[in-house]
Amino acid sequence: MTARSDTDLFSGLGRLVVLVEDPDAALAFYRDVLGFRVLHDRTADGFRYVHVGVPGQDAVGLWLMTAGSGREAELIGRQCGGQPLLVLYTTDLDAVRAHLHGHGVRVWNEREDTDSRSLHLADLYGNVIVVAQLRRAAA
After folding, report:
1. Which residues, listed in sequence order, are joined to residue 108 by a DSSP beta bridge?
2. CATH number, residue 109
3. Handedness of CA 52, 53, 54, 58 (dihedral sign)
4. What is the pLDDT of residues 8-50, one digit of tens each?
5. Could you say which DSSP state residue 71 is in?
6. Is 126 domain-assigned?
7. How many structural domains compose the chain?
8. Is residue 9 a part of any domain in this protein?
9. pLDDT(138) > 60
């Protein structure tokens, strides 16, 4: 039996849940606007399982989960209490901004920090997403 330390209990991050009203509309936004790939899209027992993720990271993604109760429906777009739902990294923030504007997505809070440039956007339900371009460390 291999000994494990307290710091290696898990081998990776899988899916984060994003509550949605309409999985088709949510899928269209994340796939067609943000460029996510469909990792899994199946229906079983009347429930649709839609998982999306960024290209090249198939083990990590978002589960676009239809709200199943009135309480869950109240949380759509607010499940993080106004804080960002996620941070996406890019190597070309200017191209991302132009792409988002081309799709009618409003961006705000554009900033430049010592180690990054970033902007905020919202998905179609109001979940805040940060896009950041990290600066390369001087060699």
Report:
1. 120
2. 3.10.180.10
3. negative
4. 888 899 999 999 999 999 999 999 999 999 999 999 998 999 9
5. H
6. yes
7. 1
8. no
9. no
**Cα–Cα distances in angstroms (integers) from residue 29 to residues 25, 101, 120, 124, 126, in the given order:** 6, 14, 16, 7, 12
Query: Is residue 23 domain-resident?
Result: yes
Distance CA 106, CA 104 (A): 6
**What does the H/E/C string look like for 14-49?**
CEEEEEECCHHHHHHHHHHHCCCEEEEEEEECCEEE
How far apart (Å, rounded) are the C-alpha atoms in residues 120 and 111?
Answer: 9
Q: Is residue 28 part of a domain?
A: yes
Task: Annotate 90-114 with DSSP letters as a single string.
Answer: -S-HHHHHHHHHHTT--EEEEEE-S
Q: For residue 127, give its domain range.
A: 15-134
Give 49's contacts (C-beta < 8 A, 6+ positions apart).
40, 41, 42, 43, 63
Name the residue with tokens 């190597």.
Answer: 91
